[in-house]
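Example 3.2
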Amino acid sequence: MNFFLRGQIIWLFIPIAIETFHVPIQLWLYARNLLHPIAALVLSFCFMGLWVSFSVLAPLIDACVEQKFPDAWNGLFWARQVTGYLITLLYLAYFGFSCAAVHHWRSGKKAVDGTSSDGDIEMKA
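Structure, written as tokens:
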């Protein structure tokens, strides 16, 4: 197996290898109520960017390889693309829910602190 084919195989599994560590850790934190809303927001944004970049760059790398791939490889490449775009949509939904969680967390924090939305202290009776 030459270098280009090995590079293509590795390129297929990089995001999945990263998710293999990320998802169980995040689920463990969520199950124990240790996942902060801002951490969820940042992680969802970063991993959505990871999948978008891999989904956009992968066809460019495939096009730059000066080699004819068998039809089975083409099917595998398209499966990788569809999977990448579907996971990107899932992370987009996760990003929206984490934005809502941060908003809810900040609203609750402001209610406890007694501050209004513009930073002024409210008068309490």
